[in-house]
User: Which sequence fits this backbone?
């Protein structure tokens, strides 16, 4: 009897919590500014899709982990000022907000 009641409770909780989980997943995706993806696809993709000049490839968790550990502000600062072969602003004319959005897009895709 106890196993049956437990199974019924588990099913009920799963049904009740499924929309919450779906909302949380959608909410995380919604926090990424679409301007970041647009800038990535127009400027950042050249190096970050192939790893040119040691640029961390989009989606490479191991390459991005130490950068992510430094924090978003540090990564955005690199995007603004440039580093190594990467020119300031990734050779784009993007403003700081859009650069941050591109970094957030790459981080989100690489976690």
Assistant:
């Amino acid at each position: 009897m106890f196993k049956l009641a437990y199974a019924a409770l588990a099913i009920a909780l799963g049904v009740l919590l499924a929309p919450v989980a779906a909302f949380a997943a959608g909410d995380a995706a919604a926090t990424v500014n679409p301007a970041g993806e647009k800038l990535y696809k127009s400027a950042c993709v050249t190096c970050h899709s192939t790893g040119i000049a040691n640029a961390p490839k989009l989606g490479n968790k191991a390459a991005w982990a130490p950068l992510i550990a430094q924090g978003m502000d540090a990564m955005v600062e690199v995007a603004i000022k440039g580093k190594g072969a990467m020119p300031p602003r990734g050779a784009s004319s993007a403003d700081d907000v859009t650069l941050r959005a591109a970094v957030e897009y790459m981080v989100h895709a690489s976690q």
